[in-house]
Design a protein that fits this description.
The protein is of the alpha+beta class and 285 residues long. The protein has one domain (69-126, 133-284): Beta Barrel (Sortase, Chain: A), CATH 2.40.260. It is 19% helix and 24% strand. It has 2 helices and 10 strands; from the N terminus they run E-E-H-H-E-E-E-E-E-E-E-E. The chain has helices at 27-76, 84-87; strands at 12-13, 16-17, 139-145, 150-156, 169-171, 182-187, 208-212, 216-229, 256-264, 271-284. Strands 3-4-5-6-9-10-8-7 form an 8-stranded mixed beta barrel. It is elongated. The relative contact order is 0.17.
Protein backbone atom coordinates (compact mmCIF):
# COMPACT_ATOMS: atom_id res chain seq x y z
CA UNK A 1 0.00 0.00 0.00
CA UNK A 2 1.49 3.33 -1.05
CA UNK A 3 1.09 6.18 1.35
CA UNK A 4 0.52 9.63 -0.10
CA UNK A 5 3.41 12.13 0.33
CA UNK A 6 3.04 14.59 3.16
CA UNK A 7 2.84 18.21 2.26
CA UNK A 8 3.21 21.18 4.56
CA UNK A 9 0.49 23.73 4.51
CA UNK A 10 1.84 27.25 5.14
CA UNK A 11 0.24 29.20 7.91
CA UNK A 12 -1.41 32.30 6.55
CA UNK A 13 -1.83 35.42 8.70
CA UNK A 14 -4.04 38.10 7.27
CA UNK A 15 -3.57 36.74 3.79
CA UNK A 16 0.29 36.48 3.97
CA UNK A 17 2.49 33.53 4.95
CA UNK A 18 3.84 33.88 8.49
CA UNK A 19 7.63 34.57 8.85
CA UNK A 20 9.85 34.15 11.82
CA UNK A 21 11.56 37.39 12.85
CA UNK A 22 14.83 37.34 14.80
CA UNK A 23 14.58 38.70 18.28
CA UNK A 24 15.24 42.43 18.26
CA UNK A 25 18.02 43.76 20.48
CA UNK A 26 17.18 46.13 23.22
CA UNK A 27 18.15 49.73 22.29
CA UNK A 28 20.63 49.82 25.18
CA UNK A 29 22.31 46.62 23.94
CA UNK A 30 22.64 48.11 20.44
CA UNK A 31 24.14 51.27 21.88
CA UNK A 32 26.71 49.27 23.87
CA UNK A 33 27.60 47.26 20.76
CA UNK A 34 28.20 50.37 18.67
CA UNK A 35 30.21 51.93 21.49
CA UNK A 36 32.42 48.82 21.70
CA UNK A 37 33.04 48.91 17.94
CA UNK A 38 33.94 52.60 18.08
CA UNK A 39 36.29 52.04 21.02
CA UNK A 40 38.05 49.18 19.24
CA UNK A 41 38.47 51.25 16.09
CA UNK A 42 39.81 54.21 18.05
CA UNK A 43 42.22 51.94 19.92
CA UNK A 44 43.61 50.56 16.67
CA UNK A 45 44.06 54.07 15.28
CA UNK A 46 45.88 55.20 18.43
CA UNK A 47 48.09 52.11 18.33
CA UNK A 48 49.07 52.91 14.74
CA UNK A 49 49.87 56.49 15.75
CA UNK A 50 52.08 55.29 18.59
CA UNK A 51 53.91 52.89 16.28
CA UNK A 52 54.38 55.71 13.78
CA UNK A 53 55.75 58.11 16.39
CA UNK A 54 57.96 55.71 18.34
CA UNK A 55 59.24 53.52 15.53
CA UNK A 56 58.69 54.87 12.05
CA UNK A 57 59.73 58.49 12.73
CA UNK A 58 62.88 57.23 14.48
CA UNK A 59 63.71 54.92 11.61
CA UNK A 60 63.27 57.64 8.99
CA UNK A 61 65.06 60.37 10.95
CA UNK A 62 68.04 58.22 11.88
CA UNK A 63 68.52 57.08 8.31
CA UNK A 64 68.33 60.67 7.06
CA UNK A 65 70.73 61.92 9.76
CA UNK A 66 73.28 59.19 8.99
CA UNK A 67 73.06 60.01 5.30
CA UNK A 68 73.63 63.70 6.04
CA UNK A 69 76.70 62.97 8.16
CA UNK A 70 78.16 60.85 5.37
CA UNK A 71 77.44 63.64 2.90
CA UNK A 72 79.16 66.27 5.06
CA UNK A 73 82.23 64.10 5.57
CA UNK A 74 82.53 63.42 1.84
CA UNK A 75 82.21 67.15 1.23
CA UNK A 76 85.02 67.82 3.70
CA UNK A 77 87.13 65.06 2.23
CA UNK A 78 87.24 63.19 5.53
CA UNK A 79 88.10 59.52 5.46
CA UNK A 80 87.04 56.78 7.82
CA UNK A 81 89.52 57.62 10.53
CA UNK A 82 87.99 59.86 13.12
CA UNK A 83 84.79 58.68 14.68
CA UNK A 84 84.63 55.34 12.84
CA UNK A 85 83.91 53.46 16.08
CA UNK A 86 81.20 55.98 16.97
CA UNK A 87 79.62 55.52 13.58
CA UNK A 88 78.83 51.90 14.36
CA UNK A 89 77.07 52.78 17.60
CA UNK A 90 73.34 53.50 17.92
CA UNK A 91 72.08 57.04 17.44
CA UNK A 92 69.58 57.97 20.04
CA UNK A 93 64.62 63.23 22.29
CA UNK A 94 62.00 66.90 22.53
CA UNK A 95 62.95 69.70 24.06
CA UNK A 96 64.27 73.18 23.74
CA UNK A 97 64.64 76.12 26.05
CA UNK A 98 62.34 78.76 24.64
CA UNK A 99 64.48 81.82 25.32
CA UNK A 100 67.55 82.61 23.24
CA UNK A 101 71.07 83.34 24.35
CA UNK A 102 73.44 85.79 22.72
CA UNK A 103 77.15 85.35 22.09
CA UNK A 104 79.37 87.53 24.19
CA UNK A 105 82.99 88.43 24.72
CA UNK A 106 85.39 86.29 26.67
CA UNK A 107 88.60 87.10 28.44
CA UNK A 108 89.64 83.44 28.52
CA UNK A 109 91.93 82.51 25.65
CA UNK A 110 91.01 79.58 23.36
CA UNK A 111 92.81 76.27 23.78
CA UNK A 112 95.88 75.50 21.77
CA UNK A 113 95.71 72.92 19.01
CA UNK A 114 95.30 69.41 20.39
CA UNK A 115 96.29 70.56 23.88
CA UNK A 116 94.27 71.15 27.04
CA UNK A 117 92.69 74.58 27.37
CA UNK A 118 94.56 77.25 29.29
CA UNK A 119 93.16 80.23 31.15
CA UNK A 120 96.05 82.57 30.46
CA UNK A 121 95.31 85.05 27.62
CA UNK A 122 99.04 85.62 27.13
CA UNK A 123 99.76 81.95 26.56
CA UNK A 124 97.38 81.21 23.69
CA UNK A 125 95.85 83.26 20.91
CA UNK A 126 93.12 82.34 18.39
CA UNK A 127 94.41 80.28 15.48
CA UNK A 128 91.26 80.15 13.35
CA UNK A 129 89.15 82.95 11.98
CA UNK A 130 85.46 83.30 12.73
CA UNK A 131 83.50 80.73 10.70
CA UNK A 132 80.84 81.90 8.29
CA UNK A 133 77.43 81.92 9.95
CA UNK A 134 75.38 79.02 8.51
CA UNK A 135 71.98 79.60 6.95
CA UNK A 136 68.88 78.54 8.95
CA UNK A 137 68.06 74.81 8.95
CA UNK A 138 71.34 74.06 7.17
CA UNK A 139 73.48 71.21 8.61
CA UNK A 140 77.07 72.39 8.90
CA UNK A 141 78.72 70.32 11.67
CA UNK A 142 78.84 66.81 13.12
CA UNK A 143 78.49 66.07 16.83
CA UNK A 144 80.03 62.86 18.16
CA UNK A 145 79.59 61.56 21.71
CA UNK A 146 81.43 58.24 22.12
CA UNK A 147 79.75 57.28 25.41
CA UNK A 148 76.34 57.45 23.70
CA UNK A 149 77.48 55.99 20.38
CA UNK A 150 76.15 59.18 18.83
CA UNK A 151 77.04 60.65 15.46
CA UNK A 152 74.56 63.30 14.33
CA UNK A 153 74.42 66.44 12.15
CA UNK A 154 74.25 69.87 13.75
CA UNK A 155 72.02 72.37 11.94
CA UNK A 156 71.41 76.09 12.43
CA UNK A 157 68.22 76.76 14.36
CA UNK A 158 65.93 74.72 16.61
CA UNK A 159 62.75 74.60 14.54
CA UNK A 160 60.94 71.27 14.66
CA UNK A 161 60.10 70.94 10.98
CA UNK A 162 63.38 72.24 9.64
CA UNK A 163 65.82 70.69 12.11
CA UNK A 164 64.74 68.63 15.13
CA UNK A 165 62.19 66.40 13.42
CA UNK A 166 64.83 65.46 10.84
CA UNK A 167 66.81 63.76 13.58
CA UNK A 168 69.36 66.60 13.67
CA UNK A 169 70.68 68.47 16.68
CA UNK A 170 69.80 72.17 16.54
CA UNK A 171 72.13 75.09 17.28
CA UNK A 172 70.36 77.85 19.18
CA UNK A 173 70.33 81.13 17.25
CA UNK A 174 72.48 83.93 18.64
CA UNK A 175 74.69 81.58 20.65
CA UNK A 176 78.39 81.10 19.91
CA UNK A 177 79.69 79.04 17.01
CA UNK A 178 81.72 75.88 17.82
CA UNK A 179 85.18 76.66 19.15
CA UNK A 180 84.42 80.35 19.67
CA UNK A 181 84.20 82.34 22.92
CA UNK A 182 80.86 82.07 24.65
CA UNK A 183 78.33 79.27 24.73
CA UNK A 184 77.77 76.87 21.82
CA UNK A 185 74.23 75.77 22.76
CA UNK A 186 72.43 72.77 21.24
CA UNK A 187 69.00 71.12 21.49
CA UNK A 188 67.76 67.69 20.41
CA UNK A 189 64.81 65.37 20.74
CA UNK A 190 64.89 62.85 23.53
CA UNK A 191 62.04 60.77 22.10
CA UNK A 192 60.78 60.27 18.53
CA UNK A 193 62.23 61.65 15.30
CA UNK A 194 65.62 60.05 15.72
CA UNK A 195 65.88 60.95 19.43
CA UNK A 196 69.59 61.85 19.30
CA UNK A 197 69.58 62.93 22.97
CA UNK A 198 67.70 59.85 24.16
CA UNK A 199 70.42 58.95 26.70
CA UNK A 200 71.78 62.39 27.48
CA UNK A 201 71.28 61.65 31.18
CA UNK A 202 74.07 59.04 30.97
CA UNK A 203 76.79 61.65 30.44
CA UNK A 204 79.13 62.24 33.33
CA UNK A 205 81.88 64.79 34.06
CA UNK A 206 84.98 63.86 32.10
CA UNK A 207 83.11 62.39 29.12
CA UNK A 208 84.29 63.83 25.82
CA UNK A 209 82.46 64.94 22.71
CA UNK A 210 83.70 66.39 19.43
CA UNK A 211 82.18 68.89 17.05
CA UNK A 212 83.56 68.65 13.54
CA UNK A 213 83.18 71.43 10.98
CA UNK A 214 84.68 72.09 7.57
CA UNK A 215 87.61 73.90 9.19
CA UNK A 216 88.36 72.09 12.44
CA UNK A 217 87.47 69.47 15.03
CA UNK A 218 86.71 70.81 18.52
CA UNK A 219 86.83 68.63 21.61
CA UNK A 220 84.63 69.49 24.58
CA UNK A 221 84.71 67.74 27.95
CA UNK A 222 81.57 67.34 30.06
CA UNK A 223 81.90 69.42 33.21
CA UNK A 224 78.48 69.83 34.84
CA UNK A 225 74.89 68.63 34.53
CA UNK A 226 71.54 70.05 35.58
CA UNK A 227 69.00 67.25 35.92
CA UNK A 228 65.89 69.44 35.81
CA UNK A 229 64.96 73.03 35.07
CA UNK A 230 62.14 75.04 33.51
CA UNK A 231 61.68 75.06 29.71
CA UNK A 232 61.99 78.87 29.94
CA UNK A 233 65.27 78.89 31.82
CA UNK A 234 67.14 80.98 29.25
CA UNK A 235 70.11 81.37 31.57
CA UNK A 236 71.39 77.89 30.72
CA UNK A 237 72.22 78.97 27.15
CA UNK A 238 73.48 82.46 27.99
CA UNK A 239 77.08 83.39 26.97
CA UNK A 240 78.09 82.57 30.53
CA UNK A 241 75.66 79.72 31.20
CA UNK A 242 73.98 79.86 34.59
CA UNK A 243 70.49 78.74 35.53
CA UNK A 244 68.03 81.53 36.27
CA UNK A 245 65.71 79.01 37.96
CA UNK A 246 68.08 76.78 39.93
CA UNK A 247 70.52 79.05 41.81
CA UNK A 248 74.06 77.79 42.02
CA UNK A 249 73.95 75.76 38.81
CA UNK A 250 76.21 77.02 36.05
CA UNK A 251 79.22 79.32 35.74
CA UNK A 252 80.21 82.80 36.83
CA UNK A 253 83.03 83.59 34.40
CA UNK A 254 83.41 83.76 30.64
CA UNK A 255 84.83 80.80 28.76
CA UNK A 256 84.44 78.40 25.87
CA UNK A 257 81.33 76.36 26.66
CA UNK A 258 78.99 73.84 25.06
CA UNK A 259 75.43 73.30 26.31
CA UNK A 260 73.23 70.32 25.44
CA UNK A 261 69.51 70.53 26.23
CA UNK A 262 66.63 68.09 25.92
CA UNK A 263 63.31 67.22 27.54
CA UNK A 264 62.93 65.36 30.81
CA UNK A 265 61.48 63.08 32.06
CA UNK A 266 61.45 60.81 29.01
CA UNK A 267 58.28 60.99 26.87
CA UNK A 268 57.33 64.34 28.36
CA UNK A 269 58.29 67.96 27.78
CA UNK A 270 57.62 69.27 31.29
CA UNK A 271 61.25 70.05 32.20
CA UNK A 272 64.64 70.40 30.57
CA UNK A 273 67.80 68.37 31.17
CA UNK A 274 71.05 70.31 30.68
CA UNK A 275 74.64 69.15 30.16
CA UNK A 276 77.53 71.63 30.13
CA UNK A 277 81.04 71.13 28.83
CA UNK A 278 84.21 73.12 28.22
CA UNK A 279 86.43 73.33 25.16
CA UNK A 280 89.62 71.37 25.85
CA UNK A 281 91.24 70.89 22.43
CA UNK A 282 91.02 71.85 18.78
CA UNK A 283 92.49 70.43 15.59
CA UNK A 284 92.37 72.26 12.26
CA UNK A 285 91.60 70.06 9.27
Amino acid sequence: MVRPARTRVPVVVHGHPARRHPARRHPLARLLWYAAEATLTLGLVLLLLVVHQLWWTNRQARAAAESKVDSLEREWGEGEGEGEADRRGPSRGAGAVDDRGAPGGDTTAPPARDTPARNSPARNTPTLGDPARPTPDHAYAVLRIPRLGLRVPVAAGVSKGGVLNKGYVGHYPRTAQPGRPGNFALAGHRNTHGEPFRHLDRLRPGDRMTVGTRDAVYTYTVDKTLDRTSPRDGGVIAPVPRSAVRPGHGYDRAGYYVTLTTCTPAYTSKYRLVVWGKLTAMRPR
